[in-house]
Amino acid sequence: MDFPEVLTEARALVTPAMDAALVRLSPEIRRVIDYHMGWRDAEGRPVQRRGSKSVRPALAFLSARAGGGAAGDATAGAVTVEFLNNWAFLIDDVMDRDRYRRHRETAWVVFGEGQAICAGTALLTLAEQVLLECDSPHRLAALRLTLDTSAMMLAGQTLDMTFEQRLDFTVDESMTMTRSKTASLMRCATSIGAILVGAPEDVVDALEEFGQCLGVAFQARDDMLGIWGISDQTGGRPPGFDLKARKGTLPIAVALRDERCGSELRDLLSAHQELPDADVARAADLVAAAGGREWTDDLARRMVMQATKAIDRLDLADDVRGHFEHLAAMGLPDDVA
Amino acid sequence: MDFPEVLTEARALVTPAMDAALVRLSPEIRRVIDYHMGWRDAEGRPVQRRGSKSVRPALAFLSARAGGGAAGDATAGAVTVEFLNNWAFLIDDVMDRDRYRRHRETAWVVFGEGQAICAGTALLTLAEQVLLECDSPHRLAALRLTLDTSAMMLAGQTLDMTFEQRLDFTVDESMTMTRSKTASLMRCATSIGAILVGAPEDVVDALEEFGQCLGVAFQARDDMLGIWGISDQTGGRPPGFDLKARKGTLPIAVALRDERCGSELRDLLSAHQELPDADVARAADLVAAAGGREWTDDLARRMVMQATKAIDRLDLADDVRGHFEHLAAMGLPDDVA
Predict the structure, then answer these.
(1) Nearest by CB: B154 against A29, A113, A162
(2) What are the backbone angles phi and psi of residue A9, rounded to the nearest 5°?
(3) In A190, A316, B224, B235, which residue has its Cα 20 to 30 A from B108's Cα atom?
(4) B161 with A115: Cβ contact below 8 A
(5) Testing the interface with A: which of B34, B94, B117 to mutate, by most A Cβ within 10 A?
(6) From CA B99, how far away is CA B35, in angstroms rounded?
(7) Cross-chain residue pair B140–A126, CB shorter than 8 Å
(8) DSSP at B40
């Protein structure tokens, strides 16, 4: 099984378990979820399923194997992280006013904000129900981790929103936001499987460190795509959308602390409620000139390296280690234009 | 201890437990909660605490006593229902565009929609953490009930939002919404204490029926206030706000099925995005003429009676029964102008 197969296999394992859980939702919530997941169109007609890459479920399955169990022991954990990830997508899209995801209109654009938020929150609740009802004797520890994770994600999203109202956030604040909003879920994915199979504490600790570092790397790479990505890489979002939306991402935070470029960037970003297309290229150049691009690229690479080191401590089957390393390499910003 | 004291005492018991839980929230989320609860102003300065009437915590404490335990055994349950209730307030206010609650601007008006939604959802997560960590050997059954309750509340809120887009909802649909959106939380409040103390199934069943009926009665009364209530009773909302917002409440659903008044009402409600003040009185008269007021008033009374009957089956201490009956009487629409 080479690299993409680990994702294909994860999706094949997690999808029926998700389907089994989703039957509990009301028809009104279900239609929003089915659209958001890429399973049905806005009118409820089935479409060729696309959906997510299933990175987080794949990590959850590998985590169970790293903890000495079988992939299937982490099914409830894989469903949980996939539901949490989609909860975050659904509510973040509303709050960030993002109109496109995976090359389709976002759920709130199609169904309204309230519907998208309730549907997202229903996934959060459903994730906890799935965990509470699974047959692992360690399910309560996994549930505790999940609740901590969702609390951190909410704190991170809230902090993120405060950034949009001010242009004085620091790199430290942006790192705190990155850790709580994104890395916490990746850490949950890389450790929940091991927790469900009752792995020893040092194994869980190493897997948590792996996920935490990987999460920061993924976000750093995403932050670069939010400025320099092309539409193909960003699910159809306009170029420079993080600049347009004045997001508190890492490269922007780094650039804002630069004396010369930072003040020009601040002037540019604060001149309009939304940065006009004509100014996006100039703002992106300022971020690069201030070193924001290099700093973020370097962070992503260091984090992938630290993640890999964390699992070097573990006694893993060769294929598990190989898959972990392949997935970690997805955090490298090599393909940013 | 006469009637208002049961609420005062409940608040005295639940408030320190809420405070102890809330320290886990991030400062950004905490300021939204403290404002919403009526503990601090928009700038974060402490104000004379007002907050909720604490009906649901009081029911949770009484529920523990009805199940053979002490009030204090239900502290985590009381915190849970109070957090769930405030979660619902925070998100419903955003979705219904309600600008006033408890005679103050709502949290989303002050802090923005995203902040209010994250803060509300943080209360939901925190409620589950409090339950999972409490020391009752029956905490998992209580957690299961709480997850079912939040899932039902989300289904109800979602159904409610679909009503606003159409004026063809039936009385059955409005009842389904009432049961899932409001009554489910009341049922949780009246049974969670008994569950936490390990009461026998027939006791829990009777308390659930009590709460379910009481919840429908409270909502029916609220539906009447949403049309005929005066500002003092509705926390500062404008008169007839449910008509203005085209809510799918019970009296409106009943009126819409009336051949003559229903069609005039439908024309009036659909003529504008928001009903002008001048037409509110006419719309309210149409609802009354169609029998919507009488029907809803009658429902509230029957539900209070059925609730009282449900607990008649139980062997309760006199003071517990008396408090339950007093709280149930709050569902009677006697004071609707």
Answers:
(1) A29
(2) -65, -40
(3) B224
(4) yes
(5) B117
(6) 14
(7) no
(8) B
Alpha helical stretches, state H, chain B:
3-22, 27-36, 55-66, 75-95, 107-111, 113-133, 139-164, 171-178, 184-196, 201-228, 241-244, 250-256, 259-271, 277-289, 292-312, 318-329
Superfamily of domain A3-329: Farnesyl Diphosphate Synthase (1.10.600.10)
pLDDT tens by residue, chain B, 337 residues: 445 789 999 999 999 999 999 999 999 999 999 999 999 999 999 998 776 789 999 999 999 999 999 999 999 999 999 999 999 999 999 998 889 988 899 999 999 999 999 999 999 999 999 999 999 999 999 999 999 999 999 999 999 999 887 888 999 999 999 999 999 999 999 999 999 999 999 999 999 999 999 999 999 999 999 999 877 777 777 788 899 888 899 999 999 999 999 999 999 998 887 888 889 999 999 999 999 999 999 999 999 999 999 999 999 999 999 999 999 999 999 888 6
Q: Where are the domains of chain A?
A: 3-329
Residues of B in contact with A132 (CB under 8 A): 140, 143-144, 147
Helix (H, G, I), strand (E, B) or coil at A46: strand
Q: What is the pTM of this model?
A: 0.95
Q: Using CA coordinates, name the residue in chain A closest to B123.
A: A151
The token pair at A88 is 């975050």
**What number of other Cβ atoms are within 10 A of residue A221's Cβ?**
26
Give the position of tokens 């390499």: A329
Given a contact cutoff of 8 angstroms between Cβ atoms, the answer to whether B275 and B142 are in contact is: no
Given a contact cutoff of 8 angstroms between Cβ atoms, the answer to whether A226 and A160 are in contact is no
Dihedral angle computed from the Cα positions of residues A53, A109, B94 and B286, in that order, rounded to the nearest 10 degrees: -140
Separation of alpha carbons A115 and A113, rounded Å: 5
Q: Residue A248: how many CB atoms within 10 A of its CB? A: 25
